[in-house]
Structure formats: C-alpha cells, structure tokens
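Example 4.3 (complexes with small molecules)
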Amino acid sequence: EEQKRAEGVPLPPAARVGGVVADIDTPSLILDLDAFEENLRTMQVLAERNGVALRPHAKAHKCPEIALRQIALGAQGICCQKVSEAVPFVAAGVRDIHISNEVVGAAKLALLARLARQARVSVCVDHAQALHALSGAMGVQSASIAVLVEIDVGQKRCGVQTPDEALALARLAQQLPNVEFVGLQAYHGGLQHKRSLDQRKKSCDKTLQVIRAFLSAFEQAAIPCPIVTGGGTGSAAFDVGSKVFTEIQAGSYPFMDGDYASNDWGHALSFKHSLFLLGTVMSTPTAERAIVDMGLKSTSAESGLPQPADASSGWSCLAINDEHTILQAANAKSRPALGAQVRLIPGHCDPTFNLHDSIVVVRGQQVEAVWPISARGLSR
Ligand code: PLP
Ligand code: MN
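Answer. The structure with pyridoxal-5'-phosphate bound is encoded below.
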C-alpha cells in the first residue's frame, strides 16, 4: 500500500501513433505533414535553383527529427543560436552546425569545443577579445572551429560596424591557432517582417549594398571570403538571387506562423500553415464566448494572438491568459460547442516550439508520429 502511493500516477501521452486527431489530448502542438513537406521542398528548390546553400535555422523548431528531414532534402546543415541548443542535434547525428551568434564565456566555449570535436562547427565573432578566447578554448581540447565575422547590416544588434574592423578580425583569425576564417554573417531580422513585398525588397537591397562594401574591402585586401551567410524566410526570395549570399539561414519557412502569414508574399514564394495549436473548448459562458484550455504556457503571443486555422470559422481570439484563450464568435451559431476541438495558428513559431516537449505529427486526421522537441529550453 505504502509503495503503491509512492509510485504516483503515470502521465498518459497526449497522442498515440496510429490514432486520430480527434483523440489527441490538449493543449498540443501539431504539425501537418503534407504542408510541412511542401514548405521544405519550396525553400530547398528555391535555394538550389539559385545555386545557394540552404542552412535552415533550427532555433525555429528545436527538433532534431525536423532538422534531419531538412538535411535529407539537401540542406547543407543547420544553424543554432545557442551552444547548448546544438547538443541534441549533434546527438541526433547532425554533423554541420553554424552557431549564428557570438559566444562569450568559458563554460559555453568549453562546450562549443566539445561539439567541434564531433561535428563541423562554425561560429560568429565581432570582437578580438572573444576571438582570442575562442582560439584558446579550442586549443585546450585540440578542437578547431570555422569563424564568420558578423557584420551589422542595419539591424543594430551584434556585428562589427566597419569593413576595417571585419578585416582586422579576419586577419587575427588567420594568425590564431585552432580557428579558421571562412567568411561573413550578415543578418537583418527587422526587415523579415516588413509587410509589403516592395518595402521588404527595398530593405534587402540596402542590406546588400552594405555587404558589397564589406566584400570589396576583402577583395582589395586579398583575403578570400568564401561564405556569406544570412537571410531569413521573409528575405529569402531576394537573397537567393543577390549573388552576395552563398547560404540562406531561413528558419520559419516550414511552419508559416501568424506573423509571417501577415507578410505580403506576392508571387515571390508561398508557404502553407503547417504548425497548429490544438485546444478544447472547456467553457461556454455566453452564447458568443468560448474558452479554450490553452494559454500563454502553450503559445507565445508577443507577435499577435493565435488565430483560427479555418479563416471562415466565424470566431476569433479576443484575449489570452496563462491557461485560457478567450474566443469571441460573431453569433451563437458560429461559437464552437463545449468539448469541441479547435485548431489555432500560433503568432510566432520559435517561442511556441520552446513551450512544448513534443510535437504531434499528423497526416490528414491520422497521427503518424510524436517528435521530441529536444532542444526545448536549451538557451545557454
Ligand atoms: N538567422 C538568424 C541569425 C536569426 O536570428 C534568425 C531568426 O531570428 C534567422 C536566421 C531565421 O529567420 P526566420 O525565422 O525569419 O526565417
Ligand atoms: Mn522567429
């Protein structure tokens, strides 16, 4: 009796492989395989047609199963934003990872060196002190790492400000042991979500001018700069044909979250919604109001509230709390019933994935798999 009490109650899984969507417990994050696979192909084909490598950003999904599918389709490798984030991907067999970020601190550098012994790893630098520390940390473990100098192309985040600074860092990398200068990272996050296609293109053009100025400085200094990596889902259509980028880092394209769906895509590219939140109506306090069993602990909302997957549903999200989402229906007829399952599109994929241990993978109404989101929470 005593021992039985100590055992507790096993937590049943939210979904069963071979089961149906209607039986998935909620809240759950779900991936529509048909749309997801089409999105993967769309971006891969775009990159290949333009002779540019695709290195999808894994911070969007933090899921090795997804990364392995991107690589199987032809992706060069992946990007991670954090060193610890890369750990489950290396464990899953990913052998080419770019840390698209500056890494500062002894513990992180030691972990980075361990990863660099198991996979081809590259990292960004924007300061001589950090480059010295990187070289030293790699040396301690007899590891070697490729280095990209990050340049600030207008985002006003990390990155060197001038071509002279970039040249100095590249030369330093050439002198220091265990680090190899391979090129530049130029990423502009702000322009990805400019709604108008035209405005986005104009911003991309400005960015390209900045990169070209850096590249001509490298050419004059006779320092080869084989890689120029950057770009995101919103700029990819322009970046691939720029003759400047050799590699595209788009991350969100497999999913098409609510924020990206608000972009004007023109005829440039089109991605389908593949990522959904599944919730259940747990209360119907008025004829027009329904409350769903899912809140900020299941979806991010800093890029807008989740929206109905079915645009003609006749209801929308009014507000979101920790564990509730409040739906407002146009009339009593369109209000979902108590117990009904609802499908929502999250506003922003990256932080939403980070809230879930796993994603339920569905084709039509069938559950095909449950994939762990292994890098979830790994922000060190
Ligand atoms: N590269 C870097 C450095 C990023 O920070 C991001 C996203 O924030 C991406 C690529 C991927 O961009 P997106 O998810 O918009 O495709
Ligand atoms: Mn994002």
